[in-house]
Amino acid sequence: xxxxxxxxxxxxxxxxxxxxxxxxxxxxxxxxxxxxxxxxxxxxxxxxxxxxxxxxxxxxxxxxxxxxxx
Length: 70
Hints:
Elements: E1 3-11, E2 14-19, E3 22-27, H1 30-46, E4 50-54
């Protein structure tokens, strides 16, 4: 089977999930984007794929889950 990679990334003031070159966005929080990626990853695991999920850490002065200042 193949490799399924999901990357949670900032998309303007929101968050998105990058997979196979496509950005699924519009998530208000990093956690919401992660939950979407995790659901997709679970399906990929059931299909037999190797799965990688990445989520960036918080940047200086940034709130833990949103792009707004802390």
